[in-house]
From TrEMBL:
This is Predicted membrane protein. The chain crosses the membrane at residues 12-37, 49-81, 93-115, 159-180, 201-223, 229-257, 269-295. It comes from Anaerosphaera aminiphila DSM 21120. Keywords: Membrane, Transmembrane, Transmembrane helix. It holds the Pfam family DUF2232.
Length: 302
Protein backbone atom coordinates (compact mmCIF):
# COMPACT_ATOMS: atom_id res chain seq x y z
CA UNK A 1 0.00 0.00 0.00
CA UNK A 2 2.90 2.34 0.87
CA UNK A 3 4.72 1.48 -2.38
CA UNK A 4 1.55 2.15 -4.35
CA UNK A 5 1.19 5.54 -2.66
CA UNK A 6 4.82 6.37 -3.48
CA UNK A 7 4.30 5.36 -7.09
CA UNK A 8 1.20 7.57 -7.34
CA UNK A 9 3.09 10.57 -5.95
CA UNK A 10 6.10 9.95 -8.22
CA UNK A 11 3.76 9.68 -11.19
CA UNK A 12 2.01 12.87 -10.07
CA UNK A 13 5.29 14.81 -9.98
CA UNK A 14 6.47 13.53 -13.37
CA UNK A 15 3.10 14.14 -15.07
CA UNK A 16 2.75 17.62 -13.61
CA UNK A 17 6.27 18.56 -14.81
CA UNK A 18 5.52 17.33 -18.34
CA UNK A 19 2.17 19.17 -18.34
CA UNK A 20 3.88 22.34 -17.13
CA UNK A 21 6.37 22.16 -20.00
CA UNK A 22 3.75 21.15 -22.58
CA UNK A 23 1.46 23.91 -21.35
CA UNK A 24 3.87 26.48 -22.77
CA UNK A 25 2.89 25.22 -26.24
CA UNK A 26 -0.66 24.03 -25.51
CA UNK A 27 -1.99 26.11 -22.56
CA UNK A 28 -5.10 23.90 -22.29
CA UNK A 29 -2.86 21.24 -20.67
CA UNK A 30 -2.59 23.37 -17.54
CA UNK A 31 -6.22 22.54 -16.73
CA UNK A 32 -5.16 19.01 -15.69
CA UNK A 33 -2.57 20.14 -13.14
CA UNK A 34 -4.84 21.21 -10.24
CA UNK A 35 -7.12 18.19 -10.79
CA UNK A 36 -4.25 15.72 -10.32
CA UNK A 37 -3.16 17.26 -7.03
CA UNK A 38 -6.73 17.46 -5.72
CA UNK A 39 -7.26 13.74 -6.47
CA UNK A 40 -4.11 12.73 -4.60
CA UNK A 41 -4.96 15.07 -1.71
CA UNK A 42 -8.18 13.09 -1.15
CA UNK A 43 -6.11 9.94 -0.58
CA UNK A 44 -2.84 11.23 0.90
CA UNK A 45 -3.92 14.42 2.69
CA UNK A 46 -3.67 18.02 1.64
CA UNK A 47 -0.57 18.90 3.70
CA UNK A 48 1.57 16.20 2.08
CA UNK A 49 0.29 16.73 -1.47
CA UNK A 50 0.42 20.52 -1.31
CA UNK A 51 4.05 20.24 -0.19
CA UNK A 52 4.76 18.23 -3.34
CA UNK A 53 2.90 20.84 -5.39
CA UNK A 54 5.17 23.56 -4.01
CA UNK A 55 8.13 21.34 -4.88
CA UNK A 56 6.89 20.97 -8.46
CA UNK A 57 6.50 24.76 -8.75
CA UNK A 58 10.09 25.12 -7.49
CA UNK A 59 11.36 22.60 -10.09
CA UNK A 60 9.42 24.37 -12.85
CA UNK A 61 11.05 27.60 -11.74
CA UNK A 62 14.51 25.99 -12.00
CA UNK A 63 13.93 24.16 -15.29
CA UNK A 64 11.95 26.82 -17.14
CA UNK A 65 11.69 30.20 -15.46
CA UNK A 66 11.21 31.48 -11.89
CA UNK A 67 8.35 33.60 -13.26
CA UNK A 68 6.48 30.52 -14.51
CA UNK A 69 7.08 28.63 -11.26
CA UNK A 70 5.72 31.46 -9.11
CA UNK A 71 2.81 32.01 -11.53
CA UNK A 72 1.86 28.31 -11.24
CA UNK A 73 1.88 28.54 -7.45
CA UNK A 74 -0.14 31.76 -7.33
CA UNK A 75 -2.76 30.62 -9.87
CA UNK A 76 -3.21 26.93 -8.99
CA UNK A 77 -2.28 26.80 -5.30
CA UNK A 78 -5.45 28.45 -3.92
CA UNK A 79 -7.82 26.42 -6.11
CA UNK A 80 -6.18 23.14 -5.03
CA UNK A 81 -6.63 24.06 -1.36
CA UNK A 82 -10.20 25.26 -1.91
CA UNK A 83 -11.27 22.17 -3.86
CA UNK A 84 -9.85 19.88 -1.19
CA UNK A 85 -11.71 21.79 1.53
CA UNK A 86 -15.02 21.85 -0.38
CA UNK A 87 -14.83 18.15 -1.29
CA UNK A 88 -13.77 17.07 2.21
CA UNK A 89 -16.68 18.97 3.74
CA UNK A 90 -19.17 17.65 1.14
CA UNK A 91 -20.41 21.00 -0.15
CA UNK A 92 -22.98 20.93 -2.97
CA UNK A 93 -21.84 20.91 -6.59
CA UNK A 94 -23.12 24.42 -7.33
CA UNK A 95 -21.56 25.91 -4.20
CA UNK A 96 -18.23 24.22 -4.91
CA UNK A 97 -18.12 25.45 -8.52
CA UNK A 98 -19.09 29.01 -7.61
CA UNK A 99 -16.60 29.28 -4.71
CA UNK A 100 -13.69 27.70 -6.61
CA UNK A 101 -14.45 29.90 -9.64
CA UNK A 102 -14.24 33.02 -7.46
CA UNK A 103 -10.98 31.82 -5.90
CA UNK A 104 -9.46 31.03 -9.31
CA UNK A 105 -10.60 34.40 -10.70
CA UNK A 106 -8.91 36.23 -7.82
CA UNK A 107 -5.77 34.11 -8.31
CA UNK A 108 -5.69 34.99 -12.01
CA UNK A 109 -6.00 38.71 -11.24
CA UNK A 110 -3.20 38.53 -8.67
CA UNK A 111 -1.01 36.49 -11.03
CA UNK A 112 -1.55 38.82 -13.97
CA UNK A 113 -0.82 41.89 -11.84
CA UNK A 114 2.31 40.20 -10.50
CA UNK A 115 3.71 39.60 -14.02
CA UNK A 116 2.88 43.15 -15.07
CA UNK A 117 -0.49 42.95 -16.81
CA UNK A 118 -1.90 46.08 -15.20
CA UNK A 119 -4.47 48.47 -16.71
CA UNK A 120 -1.74 51.08 -17.13
CA UNK A 121 0.45 48.69 -19.13
CA UNK A 122 -2.41 47.34 -21.24
CA UNK A 123 -3.58 50.84 -22.17
CA UNK A 124 -0.10 52.14 -22.95
CA UNK A 125 0.51 53.57 -26.46
CA UNK A 126 3.33 51.05 -26.96
CA UNK A 127 0.98 48.07 -26.57
CA UNK A 128 -1.61 49.64 -28.87
CA UNK A 129 1.11 50.20 -31.49
CA UNK A 130 2.36 46.61 -31.12
CA UNK A 131 -1.19 45.27 -31.53
CA UNK A 132 -1.68 47.27 -34.73
CA UNK A 133 1.61 46.02 -36.16
CA UNK A 134 0.80 42.39 -35.31
CA UNK A 135 -2.65 42.68 -36.90
CA UNK A 136 -1.24 44.20 -40.08
CA UNK A 137 1.48 41.52 -40.34
CA UNK A 138 -1.11 38.80 -39.73
CA UNK A 139 -3.40 40.14 -42.45
CA UNK A 140 -0.49 40.42 -44.87
CA UNK A 141 0.58 36.83 -44.21
CA UNK A 142 -2.99 35.69 -44.92
CA UNK A 143 -3.06 37.61 -48.21
CA UNK A 144 -5.72 40.07 -47.04
CA UNK A 145 -5.74 43.22 -49.18
CA UNK A 146 -8.22 45.21 -47.10
CA UNK A 147 -6.45 48.14 -45.44
CA UNK A 148 -7.77 48.89 -41.96
CA UNK A 149 -7.19 52.29 -40.39
CA UNK A 150 -5.20 52.77 -37.19
CA UNK A 151 -8.32 54.25 -35.59
CA UNK A 152 -10.33 51.08 -36.32
CA UNK A 153 -7.59 48.73 -35.04
CA UNK A 154 -7.19 50.88 -31.94
CA UNK A 155 -10.94 50.54 -31.32
CA UNK A 156 -10.65 46.76 -31.70
CA UNK A 157 -7.77 46.71 -29.20
CA UNK A 158 -9.71 48.82 -26.69
CA UNK A 159 -12.74 46.55 -27.03
CA UNK A 160 -10.51 43.52 -26.40
CA UNK A 161 -9.14 45.12 -23.24
CA UNK A 162 -12.63 46.03 -22.02
CA UNK A 163 -13.94 42.45 -22.15
CA UNK A 164 -10.99 40.99 -20.21
CA UNK A 165 -13.03 40.80 -16.93
CA UNK A 166 -15.75 38.65 -18.52
CA UNK A 167 -13.15 36.50 -20.30
CA UNK A 168 -11.36 35.83 -17.00
CA UNK A 169 -14.67 34.97 -15.30
CA UNK A 170 -15.56 32.57 -18.14
CA UNK A 171 -12.11 30.96 -17.92
CA UNK A 172 -12.56 30.58 -14.16
CA UNK A 173 -15.93 28.88 -14.60
CA UNK A 174 -14.51 26.50 -17.23
CA UNK A 175 -11.45 25.61 -15.13
CA UNK A 176 -13.58 25.05 -12.02
CA UNK A 177 -16.14 22.84 -13.77
CA UNK A 178 -13.53 20.83 -15.70
CA UNK A 179 -11.33 20.35 -12.64
CA UNK A 180 -14.28 19.17 -10.57
CA UNK A 181 -15.40 16.75 -13.31
CA UNK A 182 -11.88 15.34 -13.79
CA UNK A 183 -11.44 14.89 -10.03
CA UNK A 184 -14.80 13.13 -9.67
CA UNK A 185 -14.18 10.74 -12.57
CA UNK A 186 -10.59 10.01 -11.48
CA UNK A 187 -11.67 9.13 -7.95
CA UNK A 188 -14.50 6.98 -9.34
CA UNK A 189 -11.98 5.01 -11.45
CA UNK A 190 -9.97 4.33 -8.29
CA UNK A 191 -13.02 2.91 -6.54
CA UNK A 192 -13.98 6.00 -4.54
CA UNK A 193 -16.89 8.37 -4.81
CA UNK A 194 -17.46 12.05 -4.04
CA UNK A 195 -20.19 14.58 -4.72
CA UNK A 196 -19.46 15.67 -8.29
CA UNK A 197 -21.07 17.28 -11.36
CA UNK A 198 -23.40 15.03 -13.35
CA UNK A 199 -22.72 14.15 -16.99
CA UNK A 200 -22.54 17.25 -19.19
CA UNK A 201 -25.69 16.23 -21.12
CA UNK A 202 -27.59 16.81 -17.86
CA UNK A 203 -25.96 20.18 -17.20
CA UNK A 204 -28.24 22.73 -15.57
CA UNK A 205 -27.71 26.35 -14.64
CA UNK A 206 -28.36 27.18 -10.98
CA UNK A 207 -31.77 28.86 -10.82
CA UNK A 208 -30.53 32.02 -9.15
CA UNK A 209 -27.55 32.69 -11.45
CA UNK A 210 -29.29 34.18 -14.52
CA UNK A 211 -31.59 36.12 -12.20
CA UNK A 212 -28.54 37.55 -10.41
CA UNK A 213 -27.03 38.59 -13.75
CA UNK A 214 -30.31 40.17 -14.84
CA UNK A 215 -30.59 42.10 -11.57
CA UNK A 216 -26.98 43.26 -12.00
CA UNK A 217 -27.80 44.56 -15.48
CA UNK A 218 -30.87 46.35 -14.12
CA UNK A 219 -28.90 48.00 -11.29
CA UNK A 220 -26.15 49.09 -13.68
CA UNK A 221 -28.79 50.60 -15.94
CA UNK A 222 -30.30 52.53 -13.02
CA UNK A 223 -26.85 53.81 -12.03
CA UNK A 224 -26.01 54.74 -15.61
CA UNK A 225 -25.86 58.45 -14.84
CA UNK A 226 -23.62 57.90 -11.81
CA UNK A 227 -21.02 55.50 -13.21
CA UNK A 228 -20.68 57.31 -16.54
CA UNK A 229 -18.57 55.72 -19.30
CA UNK A 230 -18.00 52.54 -17.28
CA UNK A 231 -21.70 51.71 -17.80
CA UNK A 232 -21.28 50.32 -21.32
CA UNK A 233 -18.20 48.30 -20.33
CA UNK A 234 -19.92 46.71 -17.33
CA UNK A 235 -23.07 45.97 -19.33
CA UNK A 236 -21.05 44.41 -22.16
CA UNK A 237 -19.17 42.11 -19.78
CA UNK A 238 -22.34 40.93 -18.06
CA UNK A 239 -24.01 40.26 -21.42
CA UNK A 240 -20.99 38.20 -22.50
CA UNK A 241 -21.07 36.13 -19.30
CA UNK A 242 -24.83 35.63 -19.58
CA UNK A 243 -24.49 34.64 -23.26
CA UNK A 244 -21.71 32.17 -22.46
CA UNK A 245 -23.74 30.47 -19.73
CA UNK A 246 -26.76 30.13 -22.02
CA UNK A 247 -24.53 28.86 -24.85
CA UNK A 248 -23.11 26.13 -22.59
CA UNK A 249 -26.62 25.20 -21.49
CA UNK A 250 -27.77 25.11 -25.12
CA UNK A 251 -24.80 22.95 -26.08
CA UNK A 252 -25.69 20.54 -23.28
CA UNK A 253 -29.27 20.33 -24.58
CA UNK A 254 -27.95 19.69 -28.10
CA UNK A 255 -25.75 16.82 -26.86
CA UNK A 256 -28.69 15.41 -24.93
CA UNK A 257 -30.92 15.47 -28.03
CA UNK A 258 -28.26 13.94 -30.31
CA UNK A 259 -27.71 11.11 -27.82
CA UNK A 260 -31.41 10.56 -27.40
CA UNK A 261 -31.93 10.44 -31.19
CA UNK A 262 -28.90 8.10 -31.49
CA UNK A 263 -26.97 10.18 -34.04
CA UNK A 264 -23.78 8.58 -35.36
CA UNK A 265 -20.36 9.63 -34.14
CA UNK A 266 -19.25 11.26 -37.40
CA UNK A 267 -22.46 13.26 -37.73
CA UNK A 268 -22.17 14.37 -34.10
CA UNK A 269 -18.61 15.53 -34.74
CA UNK A 270 -19.66 17.56 -37.80
CA UNK A 271 -22.48 19.20 -35.82
CA UNK A 272 -20.23 20.02 -32.86
CA UNK A 273 -17.56 21.57 -35.11
CA UNK A 274 -20.22 23.59 -36.95
CA UNK A 275 -21.47 24.97 -33.65
CA UNK A 276 -18.09 26.53 -32.91
CA UNK A 277 -17.31 27.94 -36.36
CA UNK A 278 -20.70 29.17 -37.59
CA UNK A 279 -22.02 32.24 -35.69
CA UNK A 280 -25.67 31.44 -36.52
CA UNK A 281 -25.46 28.12 -34.65
CA UNK A 282 -23.92 29.85 -31.65
CA UNK A 283 -26.83 32.32 -31.49
CA UNK A 284 -29.28 29.43 -31.94
CA UNK A 285 -27.72 27.56 -28.99
CA UNK A 286 -27.92 30.66 -26.79
CA UNK A 287 -31.64 30.87 -27.61
CA UNK A 288 -32.03 27.11 -27.02
CA UNK A 289 -30.29 27.48 -23.64
CA UNK A 290 -32.67 30.29 -22.67
CA UNK A 291 -35.70 28.17 -23.59
CA UNK A 292 -34.39 25.18 -21.63
CA UNK A 293 -33.72 27.40 -18.62
CA UNK A 294 -37.31 28.69 -18.74
CA UNK A 295 -39.12 25.45 -19.61
CA UNK A 296 -36.71 22.63 -18.63
CA UNK A 297 -37.23 20.51 -21.78
CA UNK A 298 -35.23 17.62 -20.36
CA UNK A 299 -37.35 17.56 -17.17
CA UNK A 300 -34.27 17.60 -14.99
CA UNK A 301 -34.61 18.07 -11.22
CA UNK A 302 -33.45 21.39 -9.77
Amino acid sequence: MINKSKNNILSLIIKSLFLSIGGMIFPVLYIFIPAMFVVESVYSGIVKIFSFFMGVCFLVGLLMSPLIGVMMFVVFGPIILTFHYMISNKYSVNTTIIVTSIIFFISLIVGLYWVGFTPEVLNSPENVKSFIEVERNLMSSMGEKVELSNAYLTQVYNLTIQIIPSVLIIISLIVSYCTYSIVGKSILKRGGIIIQPSSFIFFRVPKGLPLALFISMFLIYILKGTIGSIYSIMMMNIVLIFSFILFVLGFSVLMYLLNKLKFGGILKFVIYVSVFIIPFFQIALIFLGLLDYLFNFRKLPN
